[in-house]
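ASSEMBLY PREDICTION REQUEST
Request ID: AP-0331
Submitted by: J.K., bench scientist
Number of chains: two
Total residues: 226
Priority: normal
Notes: Please return the full assembly, not individual chains.
Input sequences:
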Amino acid sequence: GDSVTQMEGPVTLSEEAFLTINCTYTATGYPSLFWYVQYPGEGLQLLLKATKADDKGSNKGFEATYRKETTSFHLEKGSVQVSDSAVYFCALSGSGAQKLVFGQGTRLTINP
Amino acid sequence: DAGITQSPRHKVTETGTPVTLRCHQTENHRYMYWYRQDPGHGLRLIHYSYGVKDTDKGEVSDGYSVSRSKTEDFLLTLESATSSQTSVYFCAISDGHRGGSEAFFGQGTRLTVV
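STATUS: Completed
Returned structure:
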């Protein structure tokens, strides 16, 4: 079945550092790919998405490119802030199935 | 913010008792989902619904049942709670009208089974 694998955390960075969180997936067909973020004590909220190969999703300085050849959707940000501290989830929605499959999540902590 | 409300937000219950969690939406979305969140496992799908009285199992459905008698309400029942069901439970909704539809999540219910 469909699955998502994220780099294991936790990840700790200093403010203004470059961020990469790796995500790879296994799916049949052409899934849509997502990054969700969860701030402490809250539910998940959509950060960005891409629905077809080579699409780039972007939001709040974060970017991820849908790479079909490497089945990847890595999350990047050029300069992180303390407010980016949260748990980040990579997810996919398979073609024809309206349910999200999540990776295990990566906890990110940004120190001032 | 999407209109999605979970109740209760916190619950402590004893092993062997039945527990029902409620998810209520005001968005008229077709799809509703129940996930559980556990450290090291991310979010795992328990059950989902694609319409009134239309439900299907997710990857961790054993010990859980659901019902959806109205578009706006999706109930999750733990028939006989066990300690392994201690978790944070999230409800989500989606309109599912097109590929890549965004899912909106509730605030979560923290359930402790003692």
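REVIEWER COMMENTS: Residues 5 and 24 of chain B are 5 Å apart (CA to CA).
SIGN-OFF: pending second reviewer
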